[in-house]
Design goal:
Mean pLDDT: 88
Helix content: 25-40%
Radius of gyration: 22 Å
Shape: globular
Largest sheet: 7 strands, mixed
Structural class: alpha+beta
Strand order of the largest sheet: 3-4-5-6-7-8-9
Length: 296
């Protein structure tokens, strides 16, 4: 680890690499990995749990007063009222992992008073390490990275993730997917939102959009994109994305074009329209009753 890294980022890198070693060892014998189903199409393995336990132990040993928000165990560890909150996805891309499809990663972010300040995404299959500290740039394997420079949607490769949990609006997603696909060079669905965001930061893809996401899916990747010169937000273009359950990321030009295409599908767009309609209705003067006597 580099001595130039922020001390807390250094500790996150240590935790991510240790978790990656657990994942890599398990990948040699996937038939032996115990898999359970949280809900339809949503899996957790003993590897997720071991990876998460390793990360939590590493971070809380160094910072016992910090809080933890983790995919598998929620806020059961650390100080949930701390200003320092680690947001952890111990294995983003579990379905890929259990099939031996080598697209998954470890994602660790540190939020301070609600703002993400440190980020690590580690791809154990390629030994690729993405890091960022707010205000200090984004890096892949200690090399500075920047978002892509393409400025026409027709030239862009966009990544996304399909909704797979019960209750998610698959039909609406297919409309979004169709709108984007018709305007771009290609659309890919790798299966790990955190790694998708890291790839936008590195310029490997030009943009990303997905719904149904949690904070641990986007916290680290969002900071990487920002520190690489890109924008990240919800489908209406607002910067509030961490708990929005929808995420859009790209370089500034492509981000603006994607917002124009996706804003109509945003749950926040619908909410704003409903609030405006309700406010307009309240502002309307009451009309006289239809049966009122005009001579009265």
């Amino acid at each position: 680890m580099s001595s130039a890294l922020h001390p807390m980022l250094n500790m996150a890198v240590k935790a991510a690499r240790a978790a990656g070693a657990i994942i890599n060892r398990a990948s040699f014998d996937l038939d032996a990995v115990r898999v359970s189903q949280k809900q339809v199409n949503d899996y957790v393995t003993e590897v997720d749990q071991a990876s998460e336990a390793c990360i939590i132990e590493t971070l809380l040993t160094a910072y016992p007063g910090h809080g933890i928000l983790a995919e598998e165990s929620g806020q059961q560890h650390g100080n949930k009222d701390s200003e320092f909150m680690w947001i952890i996805d111990p294995l983003d891309g579990t379905t890929n992992f259990i099939h031996g499809f080598p697209v998954y990663c470890v994602s660790i972010a540190l939020a301070v008073r609600g703002k993400v300040e440190q980020a690590v995404i580690y791809d154990p299959t390629r030994n690729d390490l993405f890091t960022a500290t707010r205000g200090r740039g984004a890096y892949m394997n200690e090399r500075r990275i920047r978002v892509g420079r393409r400025n026409r949607m027709a030239d862009c490769l966009i990544t996304t993730g399909f909704p797979f949990r019960p209750g998610q609006d698959f039909a609406q997603f297919m409309k979004m997917f169709s709108d984007i696909m018709k305007k771009t060079s290609a659309v890919r669905r790798p299966g790990s939102a955190a790694l998708d965001l890291a790839y936008v930061a590195a310029g490997f893809s030009d943009g990303f959009f997905e719904t149904g996401l949690s904070a641990w899916d986007v916290a680290a990747g969002g900071l990487l994109v920002q520190e690489a010169g890109g924008l990240v937000g919800n489908f209406t273009g607002e910067a509030d994305y961490l708990y929005a359950q929808e995420c859009l990321a790209a370089n500034p030009k492509i981000y603006g074009l994607m917002v124009k295409m996706l804003a109509k599908y945003s749950r926040y767009g619908e909410q704003v329209l409903a609030e405006e309609a309700a406010a307009a209705a309240e502002a309307q003067p009451e009309s006289p009753a239809e049966d009122a006597d005009p001579e009265a």
